Amino acid sequence: MEVNKSHSFFLPRLYILSSGESEKDKGALLLEQLKRLPYDRPCMVQIREKSLGMQELLALAVKAASLALPAGTLLLINKHKDIALAAGLHGVHLPESESLAERMTDVTSGLLKGCSVHSLSAAKIAENAGADYLLYGPVFDTPSKRIFGLPQGTENLQSICSATTLPVYAIGGITHNNVAECLDAGAYGIAGISAFSEYSQLAENIEHFYRVLSQ
């Protein structure tokens, strides 16, 4: 699929989110994931360890930024622009909220800015506020999101992709078997948590996804 989005020329098409469950290991799983990234497969990686305090989160971000990562890999953090700046990360990712526009414009210029969105209206707000990319979902059924209702589906994904000039990453229940459906709907890339949480199979899973993304 040909992608022609002005914001997307530097963005990897595979997006990994950390589990966010690092209260006990202080981010050790995330650091192990980063160390095992294939050297020739750049990824977007979001640090989202919500259970950690600010000092612990900063320490984790500094450690992550100090690693030798594949060329083109971009490190972002959930919400905390101050930590992104202090640790030398590439950007900040914001959740969808009513104050999205204000929070987006508050992010320091020079940082990559991403947003999670769950509707067309939220996607337009994020785009107008200066987002560089969107994370849309859940596209498919995934246990962690069932309490929020039914999955969005590829038709809604297509509506979002058609209505924005921003690169859109599909998230939620993404597997090797449905990546092509997301791309056919116009997604720039795919994102996931559980698909990359088993670091012993991380390189293999990334390679599987890249094969489809590169077609």
Tally of extended strands? 8
The span between the termini is 7 Å
| Number of separate domains | 1
Main sheet strand line-up = 1-2-3-4-5-6-7-8
Structural class: alpha/beta
Q: What is the N-to-C succession of helices and strands?
A: EHEHEHEHEHEHEHEH
Q: Main β-sheet: number of strands, strand sense, barrel status?
A: 8 strands, parallel, barrel
Q: Return Rg in Å.
A: 16 Å
Descriptors for this entry?
215 residues, alpha/beta, TIM Barrel, eight-stranded parallel beta barrel, 8 helices, 8 strands, 16% strand, globular, disordered N terminus
Provide structural commentary.
With 215 residues, the chain is α/β, with parallel strands linked by helices. It has one domain: Aldolase class I (TIM Barrel, Alpha-Beta Barrel), CATH 3.20.20.70. The chain is built from eight helices and eight strands, in the order E-H-E-H-E-H-E-H-E-H-E-H-E-H-E-H. It has an eight-stranded parallel β-barrel with strand order 1-2-3-4-5-6-7-8, surrounded by six helices. Strand 5, helix 5 and strand 6 form a beta-alpha-beta unit. Helix 4 runs parallel beside helix 5. The longest helix has 13 residues. The N terminus is likely disordered.
